[in-house]
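Interim report, section 4.2 (structural modelling).
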Amino acid sequence: MSGAAVDDDVKVGALRQRFGRLTGYWLALPGGLWLAIFFVIPMIYLLSLSLMTGNFIDGFTQKFHVSTYWHTISLYHDQFIRSIIYAVIVTLLTILLAYPMAYWIAMRGGRNKSTYLLIILLPFFVSFVIRTLQWQFILADNGFVLGTLKDLHLVGSDFHLLATPIAVVCGLTYNYLPFMVLPLYVSIERLDPRLMEAANDLYASKLQALLRVVLPLTVPGIFAGVLMTFVPVASDFVNAQLLGGAKTTMIGNVIYTLYLTNNDYAAASALSFTLMGALLIGIFAYARALGTKDVMEAAAL
Amino acid sequence: MTTTDTTPVTRPSVQRKPKRKWTYYILPVYTWAVLFYLCLPIFVMILFGFNDTKGRYNITFQGFTLKWYKELFAIDGLTNALVNSLTIAVIVTVVSVVIGGALGLALGRYRFRGKGAVSLVVFAQIATPELVLGTSLLSLFLTLNVPRGYFTILLAHIMFCIPFVAVTVQARVAGLDGSLKEAALDLGATPAVAFRKVTLPMIMPGILAGALLSFALSIDDFVTTSFNAGQTVTFPLWVYGASRLGIPAQVNVMGTLIFLFGLVLAAYSILAGRRKKD
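Predicted structure of the assembly:
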């Protein structure tokens, strides 16, 4: 090989190294910028809008009034509390519904595991709004569930489900159940079956093995599932709108109306920001209580 | 479900099949019940796409008909909304796969300053409720007087798809052997060729998964879109708006067709994955 060629090779190598060091930046730049402009900066605008005063007709002025917060929160604290209560109930229901199922599929699913998972994901191939509307239809006063029950005289003829909290909680539980099943399935599937055998060998009953071996080891999965259900449920407004009534209004419905019907942007953004803050504080407190190691594992799921 | 009993048979009982305790069947029956519950609205949707109703109301089943499949595009507003949703989903999928895939590759393989911050933003975006994503973006557009419409829907959808693509691609890259690419470079491949021939095929499953996810998220999105759509109507927005007046059967038909399309794609990707493994 001639000296010039070696020189060239060295040059190319050096260039490649320099380029290589920058590759990460080039690859991350478009995505990073997009998220900065359309996710991070809008948060700042949300905060700034919430601190404005004025109305849609006269225009808004930046006043840095915090009074909007106190005012709107005192006006809508019922809906706030209701959203949190619904979210807690729905999260607990989804854990109860999902855990046995995830356990069975992970432990006994055999070669059909991916088929079961596909069935769990099937609802996602139907639009969220359409799915919820089907529940409106299923739970209707003379729909086939209540209609049949009424014909059999199992419930009174004036019994109804729509526009009650039960309908809203049912719809929410239905819509967010897959988000609980999947992380639970992943964490149970990763368990070593020998651990259960060891527990049995050491004279643990089935219940003890479940409570003292399986459950503690799947806490990261439960954590991930709770994050993926609680946060979206607390801010959902589609279920309350389509299945609920005047007494089931959640905070999401208030924000939606204030933004898009009343054009009361300051109050609406104050409420959104409060919701975001409340959820963030909740997540951090929850993460703290569980310990950071579990949180990192949950994030890794 | 048939599983072979492995317990040794102590006495020859030819007539009697080995009987399981009834408690063995609790969990499978329970699982199938929950799976049925998850699919119930899908059955109802498909069934009522065949319902022979007279007008716009589609409430009780009155007989089997295919007329809604023939008159699928009879409602102009609905057809427009569907076209909007489909074109938006395609554009969003392409853009977010390129941008999000690059981000995922950077997070999974390369070192750069601010990597921790970018990961944090990606994680925070996924954890942020859609309502807040939608309202904060609306605040930006309101304050800067950006007219809302088709274009702002695109911006919003790409924003919430990028992190999902990035995370799936990153997960895929993290499980790969980086030395393969270095071997290609040592053997004289240019970085571009090494990327196309080595890295890209290896991260392809991650990219495909991210693309499927982006398409599904975009075509289905209601919350973020409703805040940033202006006068533009997408399929979920149209259905939501029509829900007060009664949903025409065409919605069920379109829902059924989208469902079947998704099912075929998912089945195809599962089968393709299986074939690769063998």
